[in-house]
Design goal:
Strand content: under 5%
Helix content: 55-70%
Radius of gyration: 29 Å
Largest sheet: none
Keywords: Ion transport, Membrane, Transmembrane, Transmembrane helix, Transport
Protein name: FXYD domain-containing ion transport regulator
Number of domains: 1
GO biological process, one term: monoatomic ion transport
Subcellular location: Membrane
GO molecular function: ion channel regulator activity
Shape: rod-shaped
Order of helices and strands: HH
Number of helices: 2
Length: 64
């Protein structure tokens, strides 16, 4: 496509920019989603379950 001044516009460049932008946003969203589950995974796994209290071995021997 030629503009009146004689320079040519490359529409593929805009398409590649848009594709790179959308791909970057999707990649960032996936990273945020995975990091949320990595950080909160243990709490989500035990949600609603009673938590077991672990006592150190030395404490149980003192009570004997």
């Amino acid at each position: 496509v030629l503009i009146s001044s004689g320079t040519e516009i490359d529409y593929d460049k805009d398409f590649y920019y848009h594709t790179l932008r959308v791909g970057g946003l999707v990649f960032a969203g996936v990273i945020v989603f995975l990091s949320f589950f990595l950080l909160a995974g243990k709490e989500l796994k035990n949600c609603g379950k009673s938590k077991k209290v672990r006592r150190p071995a030395w404490l149980s021997e003192l009570r004997k």
